[in-house]
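batch_manifest entry 22 of 60
target: GS catalytic domain-containing protein
source organism: Pyrenophora teres f. teres
requested by: lab member K.T.
priority: normal
notes from requester: please return tokens only, no post-processing; we will run our own comparison against the previous entry in this batch. if the run fails, retry once and flag.
--- input ---
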Amino acid sequence: MDPITSTARLTVEQLRHVVNNYPIIDNHAHNLILPTHINTIPFETITTEAQGRALRDTFKSLSHLRAARQLRQLYECAEGADWEDILEQRIEWLRSNSERLHERCFENVHALLIDDGLAAPEEVIPYEYHDRYTKAPTKRIVRIETVAERLMESLVRDASEDDLAKTKFLPKTWTTFTDEFEREIQDAIEDENVAGFKSVVCYRTGLDIEPDYEQAAKMVGHPFERYVKSCIRKRIYRIEKKPLNDYLVLRTLEILSERQPHSDSLAKPFQLHTGLGDNDISLLEANPSFLQPLIENYPQVPFVLLHSAYPYTREAGYLATVYRHVYLDIGEVFPMISRDGQAAVLRQAMELVPGSKLLYSSDGHWFPETFWLANVQFREVWLDILIEYIKKGDLTPQQAIGMTKDIMFNNANVLYNLRYEATFDETIQVPPKQLTYNTKPSIASPFRSPAVTPGPSSGLYSQAPTSDRQISPPVSPYAQPAFPPPPKVPQVYDIEKLDYFMEQNPTVKFIYVQWLDYTATLRTRIVPIKEFTRMVSEGERIGVSQGNTGTLQNDHTTPVVNTTGQMYVEPDLRSLRPTHNKDPLPAATVLSYWRSENGAPLPSDPRNNLEIVINELQYNHATTLLVGFEIEVTFLSRNPPSKSTNSFQADPYAPLTKEHAWGTLTPSQWLQLPFLSEIVLALEEMEIDVQQFHAESGKGQYEFVLPPQPPLLAVDTLIQARQVIAQIASLHGLRATLHPKPFEGIGTAAHAHVSLHPPDRDMQFFVGGVLKHLPALCAFSMPEEVSYARVEDDSWTGGTWVAWGTQNRETPLRRITLGHWELRCMDGLANVYFALSAILGAGLLGLASAPTTTPTGLARDVPVNPSSLGEHELAKYGVTRRMPRDVFEALVALEKDAEFREALPGAMVENYLAMKREELRMLGNMSEGERRVFLIERY
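--- output ---
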């Protein structure tokens, strides 16, 4: 009888599913090499530590032959492909589809801990760049010998033999060296991007390290002097003097021990190379048994014995078993030794070591294939061993699953205090035993392939012209059909758009169906692609309670809530866009309409109302426009909770960078470029272009400039881009907020650029329409009390006067060139569909009042700061009104501006006013601090 009973078979299948697919935290790896240096390292080194002439024989090793077979599968080579064929195919992949190769190699890798001291920085990709291939941010492992060697190089780079003759030179060098080394280690301890430390003393002078710190400090003097002299004379900075190597290890351990908050806590882990290495190592002195006295002397420092300590796995396993602060890494043997050797290493590790003390690593380096081979081979051998233990009754399937999750993810997550969350679908896809539906498609099947594959014009990314003076009508999926306007009938899905999208994005498994409510809160339903495809093919929508349109950000109800009735969310397939590679799901996002039960547009739908105004502008006035948004955002780190009554000390937030002025690149800002560029690259991956990004004036404040697009596409893109910015910031433990005034001083706006085509009636549109109704329009564009704290005179925030001026940033409406204007009285709390609808609605009123000629009596171009003018001078420019001083004045202006309200759907305005009043009451019941946190966490 099969030792695995029938009742356990499903659980064994679950084990197989977990082993083959569970996300990995790779607790020890190295940087990928830059493409410019890729030919400096033989590719065959991926399976061996041999170098030079010894490397010639690797082609006949089991580890190489096995890896070659697996690489054929990775590169999709023919079964009989030899090594030269494999290399040729690899080069073709790198040339034609490098990103896809990298994505495949890092599949199911959740995070990497990278020792970035293996090579010079100019030879390898920076550690944080690897984030683009993983779900969670990469962390650094600081190699202490590299810190010391680069430090020494900087100290004596300009020194000469004459300096050695000076009495104070060597003592001063020692003092500076030790002080700077300690400072760098201490800074790394405080750096949240550093997960731990590492020493390669095993390579240099062996693991027989002097365990007593005071003794090591006494012995280091003369060896250090000889080392400095060698550095100056030979310009070689490698540290290979045992007393100095030992001292660096012990000094690091001392610092780690000293920086503990309380006696029972553990420091950041300290990794040690043990065992397996190239011929630079003394194999006898690579035995981790030598470390026992050192381990005993530093009980507060977690020691991680790397590379399975091969061939000393049992010795390392003993240490990991009897000392609470010692862990065994089972890495590098994948793919460096044969399958049987790997199995033997795992068995030896499990002879003694608890599953909670084992960590997985790939030791991946230089080439992405090293990560892939290690992960594939580990999963293969690990599964074989677990099934063997289950058959023998030593483990249950459930225990094996738990041990797998611990070794692959949980142990490293806890030890390195990463606080990552594994995203994993436990469901096993089991094929049905019988078909329960008709396999013969009907003649009218919506799944039939079109005769011609839809061209690129049906995608999102057709570019509109950007010229300010001559703007052609936009060509995009959002472009409206020619005259006359289409009949207002329920919208139907264009299934070809979904088919084309899935052809281009076959890995998408989920769809974020999203819509923006009245409070500018992005609501989301996550739909598996199978259900989404069915829904689209059958013309269905997602049913949502009608009452949800009347709730506030925290689901607080308002008088608008109707507890009966249903609305239907209809995805607009034109807005389909794949998410970035850091998204935990292989997904796409789509913006949606609100529909009635029979499919008719709901009058309260912000997105549909914007489209109605766009259509009216095009069909009744033969005018199109482009809209471009500036995303101003403040990046905040979170302060630990404080009991202080001092508001400054108790602030839950701190700006990411503090030395700010517009357009600067201070050292602290420069250090954030990897993070900021990660955002831009994520947007680029989604085909959201960023024209430029730069520091703004406020602390922690940056701006990302989006290109001009047709209006509905522009708003959809803005919403999707803001979401990406917030998500990438969250991966770094930051909050990206659009709050208009997160700190005292300069605030955060959301300027909108609008260009008319043809441009010759811009005065009627903007001055005769938008400026005339600007106070009422502010109820939509600056919708909160704090919105008005941002706007001041003499601060480039648009000022407090209802005025316009050519290139005048002290007016709320700035004319840039003919037809191209900027609305400056808008911030990130606004529902942008509402705000842009209000702008276009006001502009339509201006066009309607003077369809052909510029009306007389319009406000004139103000060439100076209006606040510098007296009452008589202001009147000369037609400037007689103040902007609303607060949101209450703006709401009153909206209520009283009957002409403006008639330009917008009545139900929308009434609902908006009712909800704003209730929201302001809710926020008014909070303290100022509570209100600030409430808005920062939501916008």
